[in-house]
Amino acid sequence: MRKGNPWLSVLFWVLLSFLTLFPIYWLFVISVKPAIELFSTPSVWLSGDLYWKNYADVLNDRTLRSYMVNSLVISSGNAVLCTTLGFLACYALSRFDLPGKESVFFWTITNRMAPPAVFLLPLFLLMTQVYSIGDFKLADTRIGMILVYCTFNLPFAIWTLRPTLDGIPKELDEAAYVDGASPWNVISEVVFPLARPGLAVTLILTWVFAWNEYLLAATLTNFNARTLTTGLSEYVTTTGTNWGIMAAISVFTLIPALIVFSLVQRHIVAGLTFGAVKG
Amino acid sequence: MQSKFLGWALLAPTLLILALFGVVPFIYVLFVSFHQWNPFGANPDMLFNWAGNYRKLVFDAQFLASLGVTAAFVFFAVLSELVLGYALAQALMRDFPGKAFFRTIHTLPLIMAPIIVGSVWKLMTTPSIGIIPNILSNWLGYDLNIGQSAWQAFATTVIMDIWHWTPLVTLTLIAALVSLPADPFEQAQIDGANRRQIFWHITLPMIRPAILATVFIRMMDAMRTVDEVLMLTGGGPGSATRYVGVHIFKEVFPRTNYGYGSAVSVIVLYLTIVVCWLMYVGLIAPRNKGKG
Fold first, then answer.
1. In the prediction, which pLDDT does A236 show?
2. Which of B88, B172, B182 sits opposite A201 (nearest CB)?
3. Do the Cβ atoms of B113 and A246 come within 8 Å?
4. What would the pLDDT profile of A160-213 be if each residue is shown by its tens digit?
5. Dihedrals phi, psi of A137, to nearest 5 degrees
6. Does any CB of chain A come closer than 8 Å to the CB of residue B19?
7. pLDDT tens digits, B220-229
8. List of domains in chain A
9. According to Swiss-Prot or TrEMBL, what is its membrane topology (chain B) (predicted)?
10. What Å distances lie between residue A220 and A105, A217, A275, B120, CA to CA?
11. Which residue of B has its CA nearest to A96?
12. Do B280 and A106 touch (CB under 8 A)?
C-alpha cells in the first residue's frame, strides 16, 4: 500500500527480533547449563561445554511424551471446535435479526472475565460428580478439557470473528440467496473464503491459549489428560526448582507451536474478492 | 431476512457449552460467597453468614489496594500493547524481504505459557544472578532490584506483559487490516489525502470494531493475570504487584478461604462486567445499531 525502502524495514525487524528473542534465548541458555552455574554471575554469551543432559532426560521421560500428545490433542481439538462454533455463532449474530442478540454477544465474553482461581472448585465438582454418562466422567479426559477450555476460548473466538463477519458485505449473501443457494452454501462458499484471514488468526490464538493454559489443567487432570504445562510445574518442588529441566521442556513446547504457526499463518493474506462489491 | 429458528440453531451449541461450563460454576461460586467456608480450617462446615464476606471485603485494605494496582497495571500494559501492536501490524502490511519470517519471530512470545514466561523473567531479573540487573549495573550503572523497589517490580511486570502480549494485538489487527477493501484507500489517494488524514478518516473508523474487541480481550485478561506475576514477583515486594487475580489465588490456595475468595471473585467479576459493559454501550453498540 505504501512505499519506502524495504531494507529499512528489514533492519528495523532485525533489531526488534533481538528484543523479542532474548528471553527465549535465555530459556535456551538455562536449559544447557548445569544447575550449579545458574547461581554464578551470568554472561550474555554461551561459553564452555554445553550441558545437554537436561534434553536427554526429557526425551527419555515417557510420561512427558504422553503429556505432549495430550497437549497437542486438547489444544488442536479445542481450537478447531471454538473457531467452528464461533464462526457459526458470529454468522448468526451478524446476519440474523434475533431479539436480544447484542446482549447474548456481550454475555458470551463475561465467561472469560471470571478470575480463574475460585472457579476451579465448582468445575472440579461438576466434572467428577455431575457431568457423566453412565460410568464415563468428564474429569481427567481429553474431551473434558476440550470442553472446559471453551469457557475462555469460545468467547474469544466470537469476539475476534465478529468484526470480520460484520465487515463482509451482506449484499454478497443476498445475491447468493437470490441465485437459489442454501444457507449452508452461503456460509461455506461465500462467507468462509472471505473470512479466512480472521479464521486463521482465531485458530492460532485459541490454539495458543489452550496450549498454554495451566491452572485448569493442573486441577482437573490427574494423569490421563495431563498437559505439558502441568508437567512443567512438577519440577517446581518444595525443595527447589529444577530450572534446567523446566527450561528444556519449555524449549520442546515451542517446537509443535512453531509448526502449527507456520502452517496456519499462510492463510493470513488479503482476500481479493472484496472488489466484487462496489460501495 | 432468514428464519429466526436457523439463527438460534447456529448459536445453540455455543450457548449450551457456555451455560454448562460458565454459568453453572458461577451459580455455585455465588452460593459459596454467602457462606463462611474454609474446608481445612478449624470448622470445615459451610456456615451461612448472609453478606458477611461482602461486608468484610469493603473494609479489606489489601483487597482495595490490589484493585488500585490492578487498574494501573491494566492501563499501562494495555495502552502500550495497543499502540505498539498497531504500529507493528501496519509495519507488517508493507512488502519487504523475509516478512513472513519476521512475523513468525514476532509471534513467538505468544507460544510460551505464562508460567514459563514468569519463570524465565524471574531468572533474568533476580538481583545479582539475573542477566538484566547485571547488564544494567555494568553498562549503565543502574540498580534494578525487583525484590525491593516497589515501582521497579511493577514496571517489570508491565514490561513482561507487553513483551508477552503485544503479538496478540498485532495478529488480530493484521487480520482486520488485510480484510479492508482497497477501494476507499485508492479513492482517498486520488483525492490527494495525506497519510494522517487517511489514518484518522478511513483506517481508524474501519478497523475500530477490531481494535475495541482486542482492547476488551486484553483488558479482561490483564485483570485476571495470575501465573505470570505469581512466578515473577509472588505479588511483592509488599503488595506492589498483588493484582486481584494474585490476591484471590493467595486467598484460596495457601489459606483455603473459599467463602471469602468466592465473594472477592464475584465482586471482581461484577466490576469487570460493569466497566466492560459501559465501554461496550458507549463505544461499540452504537456502531452496530447504525449498521442495522
1. 67
2. B172
3. no
4. 898 888 888 888 888 888 888 888 888 888 888 888 888 988 998 899 899 988
5. -110, 150
6. no
7. 888 888 888 8
8. 1-51 (no CATH), 59-270 (1.10.3720.10)
9. Multi-pass membrane protein
10. 28, 5, 49, 26
11. B7
12. yes
- Quote the distance between the C-alpha of residue A261 and its chain's center: 10
DSSP H or E segment with residue B248: helix B244-252
Residue B169 near chain A (CB below 8 Å): no
Domain B60-256 top-level CATH class: mainly alpha
Q: Which amino acid is at B238?
A: G
213-252 in chain A: CB under 8 A from chain B: 213-215, 229, 232-233, 241, 243, 246-247, 250
Report in angstroms the alpha-carbon separations of A274 from A23, A169, A191, A197, A217. 41, 9, 11, 13, 42
Cα distance from N-terminal residue to C-terminal residue, chain B: 12
The three-point CA angle B125-B128-B130 to 5° equals: 30
B288 touches chain A (CB under 8 A): yes
CA B218 to chain centre: 4
Amino acid at B227: D
Q: pLDDT digit string (tens) for A16-61?
A: 999 999 999 988 888 888 777 776 767 777 766 777 888 888 888 8
CA distance A226 to A218: 8
Per DSSP, helices labelled H in B21-95 are: 24-32, 52-58, 61-91
- Contact state of A115 with B18 under an 8 Å Cβ cutoff: no
